[in-house]
Amino acid sequence: MYPLVKQILCIPRTLTFYSSLIEYCLSLKKSVNYTKIVHGQLIKVGFNSHTFFGNRCLELYTRSGSVDDILKAFDDIKIKNTISWNVCLKGLLNCGRGDMGQVLFQKMPERDVVSWNSMISWYASCERSDCVWERFREMLYVGVKPSGYTYSIVVSLVFDDVLLGKELHGQMIRSGLIRSNVVLGNSLIHMYGKVGLIGYAVGVFMSMEYLDLISWNSLIIGFCKAGFGELGLDQVSSMRYFGYLPDEFTCSAVITCCTNLKNLEKGKQVFAFCIKVGFLCNSIISSAIIDLFSKCNRLEHSIQLFKELGRLDSAVCNAMISSYMSHDIGESAIQLLILMLRKDIRPTEFTLSSILASICGMQVVVQGTQIHSLVVKTGFDIDCIVCSSLIQMYATLGLIDYAIRIFASMTSPDLISWNTMIMGLTLNGKLLNAVDTFKELHRKGPLPDQISLTGVLRSCSYGGFVDEGIVIFSKMEEYYGVRPCYEHYACLVELLCQGGRLYEAMEITEMLPYEPSSTIWESLLQACTFHGDVRLAAKVAVRLMELEPQLSLPYVVMGRVYEMRGQWEDAVRVKKAMNRKVVKNVVGCSWIEIKNHVYSFTGEQLQQHTGRDIYSILRLMTWEKGETLVEVNPADIDAIAHNKYV
User: Which BP terms does GO give this entry (predicted)?
Assistant: First the structure.
């Protein structure tokens, strides 16, 4: 027995004594041994079945005890009141037995606001927002008045439903909780900033009787998320004027504002302030500053800060990996991942998805499969973000069957996963599969968005599924609630061109609500040339010349049109105009991976520094085959090897 408790038990035992003893044990917050000692004393004197003492003992077990202890103490109480049920419910939920908690909740003879709050809070902690809203609506239906704690939970789960957020705000005003409750006011400011209604956030801020630092931070973050970074920076000065000292969250929000605005000078000022007050040891602050330097094209500063931090954690490493990625330095990002693993720093889903994106750009299959193995080992193969990155990687590398296998293994793919799969199938020529995947998304997935419709329209265009593509386009606003944007019209024009319906494509192009780009006119011109419509081709070529005077295609087409008509003088004039202008030529590019290094070859240039060795090997290979290789000037080889040719 613990010495202090042993001394206390020598005191004459009265009701006040046992009440004080329980209060003392509750204040200790230590192991279950204290609770069992007190419980044993209550059993000896028969107070364990008393409602008040039974509830207090039950509360002890909810802080340090097992499910069996909680249920035993609960069963000992002869006359259970609402507090007994609530404490037992809280204990079961705290022990992770949500299934038993739900059963107990259904059996409760009377549920007050504490009972409902316990269930709503548990559902929110488990990220089951649908159950939170179901319980909240049921709570209102049975006539239980929500408390400020209830509203703070449900408001935090409003992400994009503006009407729902306003409705909750109205309920709080009617209940009279909003004016004096700082927590609710801060929750509303954060919610309105999150959905982009910054005017409402300012209105709530101005109407609050009491403000704290969280209120100012929420307002600054709201301005930043809504795209009003300058106003967010102005609030810092107002906050300092009213005597509030910025904390780590303030500095993080201000650095994010500077990053979005690409305002390096003010970012450096915040950086200096963080060094002065010692905030740089916070990984959130340091990672935000690394991101700031990277977004402002100061990657060398990001690298220098990363090296000088003297410590590594997942947040800082993720920021540095993202910086390498944004500057197309994929190999450095992979090397940093290897360093993280050597330092026993567990990669997050952001780390792995970023690395997989870098592999897509580098076109390295072996390293991609190695990262896939790491994903499986770390247990992130069930994460939707990582799986979407895996699907994109394999689709980009041309291994579409692996992408299909990963998508099929996902239990509940999100919309990003569906979109990635549709785009991957389209780019790899699995056009019927892409259309079928879109139909499957329509049947059992979330509602398609702009990216989903762009992917399926492209697959219809590439595959020549004209009628099906037109039907999907016509249903965009009615069935899916998506207004066609420029990409959708471009896909529709290309679809009609594929089907030979040139005049319909031309009519849609001229009636577009957007200014047609050269890509649409180029697709239309190529279709006119393919189908032999000389008259329409000449009209489109003239429009394309006006829009892109340095593009070679319209000049070539017009030259052929004039030659077919026998207008030789016009043909010569067009060719001279093409030679006189700086014509843009598209240079092809290929990649090849050799021993984990990627070499890039273009039509005009060999982009690496071993040109002489490669030509020597080519001579040896052709000599073995008995063929003759055209001699190359050594000076030309040196120029190629050192990238001197443009």
Answer: RNA modification
Which residues fall within 8 angstroms of residue 207, CB to CB, at 6 or more apart?
178, 179, 185
Cα–Cα distances in angstroms (integers) from residue 243 to residues 37, 199, 237, in the given order: 50, 24, 10
Tens-place pLDDT, residues 97-111: 888 888 888 888 888
CB proximity list for 406: less than 8 A, separation 6 or greater: 387, 390, 391, 394
CA distance 280 to 309: 8
Which residue in this structure is represented by tokens 């004016």?
Answer: 179
The residue-averaged pLDDT of 7-29 equals 52
Task: Note the Cα 630 to chain centre separation in Å.
Answer: 53
Compute φ and ψ for 591, nearest 5 degrees. -120, 150
Q: Which secondary-structure segment (H or E) carries 601?
A: strand 597-602
Token pair belonging to 486: 């420029």
Q: In this structure, are residues 500 and 531 in contact, taking their beta carbons and an 8 Å threshold?
A: yes
Residues in the chain, total = 646
- Beta-carbon contacts of residue 321 (< 8 Å; ≥ 6 apart): 333, 336, 337, 351, 354, 355
Could you read off the pLDDT of 450-476 as tens digits, one per residue? Answer: 999 999 999 998 888 888 888 998 888
d(CA 163, CA 155): 12
Rounded to the nearest 10 degrees, the angle between the axes of helix 314-326 and helix 349-362 is: 20
417: CB partners within 8 A, 6+ apart: 384, 387, 388, 391, 407, 410
Q: How far apart are the first and last CA of the chain?
A: 86
- Measured distance CA(405)–CA(495) in Å, rounded: 30
**Tell me: the pLDDT tens digits for 548-593?**
777 777 777 777 777 777 777 777 877 777 777 655 555 566 666 6
Instruction: Name the DSSP class of 382.
Output: G
Provide the sign of the torsion angle of the four alpha carbons 189, 191, 192, 194, taken in this order.
Answer: positive
> What is the rounded CA–CA span in Å between residue 625 and residue 133?
74
Q: Which of 18-32, 157-171, 411-425, 554-568 has the lowest mean pLDDT?
A: 18-32
In 3-state terms, what secondary structure has residue 230?
helix
